[in-house]
Specification:
Radius of gyration: 19 Å
Largest sheet: 9 strands, mixed
Number of helices: 12
Distance between the termini: 36 Å
Number of strands: 9
Strand content: 5-15%
Oligomer: single chain
Length: about 350
């Protein structure tokens, strides 16, 4: 299987040349917005009430079935990727494996993946991930050091258990003579020897181990995700992020991506935890209708016309400039071709 870090550059098309898309390339469905970690660099650690804290839940299986049914009826090519994760820990939902089964049987995407902290992974779940051929599982690690892991995650979870869980998944794969799922284990750049310790710790249970570059979530008052995470190394992380950023105008997510929250809200964004880019709800409208709606069209115009400041989430976001996470530049795409 292709390494996870190579997926964005494999068979890549020039987005400007193929817009507008009949349907999104990427759809994220959020099995759960709940999480058993409270990471300092994540909105899960917020103590104040906000849109996100007020909408935390597991997605009901009936809603998930409805989303999959709509995607199956949506004419056109398969999705490039269906991601069964968004803002929470997907395995927090005990229906996750059934959701994977339904998604696999629907045959609506070229690949299916999820991102997890692997703390809730067990043998039974591992067997289902293999049986239902999850293509990729990305595992988020926060430190190879137990003390620092606890400090970051607000959890006393033993990191040795994560290694054991991944080893069990690899053993299930071997017994089934399966390459699925490809296990990609990643950690944010620590700018220290901690990177090497992390790589060494997980190399025997992963198909790929890699370091991610820092980025900040949408900015909210009184919080600085990078500073909260990096502390005395924050200046280095911010400088690194700036060096790997480009002066783009438009965020391409509105043209390629659809995210369905556990509560049914639909957005063109996978980082908007505060809900400013919600453009519909799957319980009220079909996904295809939302994708082709005037609201979504106007949101795309807002991007191309450099009016992101008019949306209170986009006004606080700069991830679209990050070359590590955003590969497409659609600046200058003519408005008259949007329809």
């Amino acid at each position: 299987m292709i390494k996870y870090t190579d997926l964005k550059s494999t068979n890549r098309q020039n987005l400007k040349e193929i817009l507008p898309l009949k349907k999104p390339f990427t759809v994220l469905i959020e099995p759960s917005s709940l999480c058993n970690f409270r990471c300092v660099q994540c909105f899960q650690s917020f103590k104040e009430d906000n849109y996100f804290s007020g909408t935390k839940m597991n997605m009901p299986l009936t809603r998930f079935k409805g989303v999959i049914d709509q995607l199956k009826k949506w004419e056109g090519s398969k999705l490039k990727v269906l991601k069964l994760n968004l803002y929470g820990e997907p395995l927090f939902n005990t229906d996750f494996c059934e959701m994977l089964r339904l998604a696999r049987e629907a045959d609506i995407a070229e690949r299916i993946e999820t991102t997890t902290n692997a703390s809730l992974l067990n043998k039974k779940i591992a067997e289902k991930l293999v049986e239902y051929e999850l293509d990729y599982v990305r595992v988020s690690i926060y430190s190879p050091d137990q003390r620092k892991h606890q400090e970051i995650t607000g959890s006393k979870f033993d990191i040795r258990k994560i290694h054991e869980n991944l080893k069990a998944l690899q053993n299930v794969k071997k017994r089934a003579a399966s390459k699925h799922p490809f296990i990609a284990v990643k950690m944010l750049d620590a700018y220290s020897s901690e990177n090497e310790a992390f790589m060494e710790m997980y190399k025997d249970v992963a198909d790929e181990v890699y370091i991610e570059k820092p980025h900040s979530w949408i900015k909210v008052s009184g919080t600085d995700f990078i500073k909260d995470y990096y502390k005395d190394k924050a200046a280095k992380a911010i400088d690194d992020s700036e060096k790997n950023s480009s002066p783009r105008i438009a965020c391409p997510m509105a043209f390629t991506t659809m995210a369905v929250r556990s509560n049914g809200d639909v957005s063109p964004c996978c980082v908007d935890f505060i809900g400013g880019t919600n453009l519909g709800n799957v319980d009220d409208s079909r996904l295809e209708e939302i994708w082709n709606s005037d609201r979504w069209f106007e949101f795309r115009k807002l991007q191309l016309q450099n009016r992101k400041h008019e949306n209170y989430s986009c006004a606080r976001c700069d991830i679209f400039r990050n070359d590590y996470y955003t590969k497409d530049n659609i600046d200058g795409f003519p408005l008259e071709k949007l329809r």
